[in-house]
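Anyone? Bumping this.
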Amino acid sequence: MLTITALQKSFPVPGGGGSRRIIDVPHFALAAGEQVALRGESGSGKTTFLHLVAGILAADGGRIELAGTEVTALKEAARDRLRAQRIGYIFQTFNLLQGHTVLENVLLGMAFGAGADRAHAGTLLGRVGLEDKLGHYPRHLSTGQQQRVAVARALANRPGLVLADEPTGNLDRRNARESLALIREVCRESGAALLLVSHDEEVLAQFDNVHDFAVLNRAVEAVA
Amino acid sequence: MTLWNLIHRSLRQHALSTLITAGSIALAAGLLLTVWMVKTQSQAVFAQTNSGFDAVLGARGSKMQLVLNAIFHLEASPGNVGAEDLAMISRHPAVRTAIPIAVGDNYQGWRIVGTQPRLFTDIEYLPGRKYAFASGRLFEDGTREAVVGSYAARRLGWKAGDTFSPYHGLAFNPGSQHEEVYTITGVLEPTNSPVDRVIWIPLSGVQTMSGHDPRAAQDVSAVLIQLRAPTAGMMLDMMYNRQGDRLTFAFPIAAIIADLFNKIGWFDQVLTLLAALVAVVAAGSVLVSIYNSMSARQRDIAILRALGARRRTVFGAVVGEAGAIGLLGAIAGYGVYFALAAAVAGIIRAQTGVVLDPWQWHPVFWWAPAALTGLCVIGGLLPAFKAYRVPVAETIAPVS
């Protein structure tokens, strides 16, 4: 499903002091339907890694192959299309559009991919327990409910891969547990692979397959 | 569809600023259309207004003053035409009809004009259209009877059978009322010309009104002339204006009015420039409004991009939003135009009797709103470029 080889990414150092390598991952692989967690401290480059996998950022070197498509060979517009069609992204801060209702947020997740499908959006929101909140705006929801909207949106285009960046970081313990269980469950139901990054040991303990990002990413070691 | 959804939801999300900005566009569009309508229609309508006559003969002076006084019933008369001159022009072989008018009195500011009944029976004020009475009948020559133009009758609340006593002079002075009492015998049908603003009485009424100079009892203020052929106008022009030195022959009337508009052309240009400036400022307000909100929108744009929206999609959404605000404003501008134009047309009618028609089609009705919408689209380009360049990764998530 996802194969990464010799992935590298550097950023310019503020003040014109050259560039600093943030990502240097020799190899990483994720099978279809597999659920993997990456452990890492804040600032270790986990989000940048996910951004590279999602095609939000372009890699400086290396190769990312997603379901037979070489992401690193695509131009930005093609990466955008690929992300819309094949990748679901759950953010730590949910990133819901505040001017849009719950249903509209999910429909918007579909708009750039397969196209808006109200029935499917309604089904997804029912699956995450928000069937009675379709017309609500995010500001009227609890943080746990907002997270569930984000989960439904991430799965709206029936993606093969779901990326979750500290998805429980803004939730209390009980909501975090429920939310994580929900994410894993709906990914399993839809057959999507899940790549989750977190520094929360309670979250990581739920996964059979946990990689230490500091080991995976040689740049972390170099910086240290 | 996606683009329209984005535009629609953004307009809804920023409803207040959308309404305020569209309102400023509407005012600009309404102002632009009104200025254009008044400019083009007034010139055309004034130039066509001649009450069915080709020329005016009056005392020596300005042709424009003569036309404004005799045809538009504005301005003071430049002087009198004696009885002999009236008889001469009436008998001239080049003249088909010569109808004298006399001015010098008013009723509460509404001008009283003395003339002969045949003005209303023989003259077509527009090709194929003679004066008609909405009620009552024509006055009889030599009596103290009057007929009233439709607009004056409506404003004064007069009807057949009512009476009034004229005031001396062209400007209303409450202390200068004549003792004669006139009875209204009829109210004219609207002609949409200056005739509608006039109270008409027999010529002898003005000539012999108490307090008027008895030495001028046979004089008239001007003679309205229909020529047998347009070329005769040249001959009379030569006779009165170049060879003579007592009278002025104003011909052709349309050219004299056109000359008036040429003289005040700078005013048109100033109005047009002001309207154009208002339009540009309004379009600029779209730029400022959207641009200022870009910081707040940056996160939404980054989210859209993270969901798979391409740069050109968010660029198009912002430009489209600017265009949609412009279009909304332009459409609302028609409402502003009709309100503004009706008010301006009312003022012009009250002052001159000339009727402008705000509903009359002119190409400006499509190109001005289209240009304004286009300006707004241009105004949207800068914020759209800012949206295009939003750094997704930096904006969307805290780094971990």
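Late reply, but here is one note on the structure posted above: The two ends of chain B are 36 Å apart (CA to CA).
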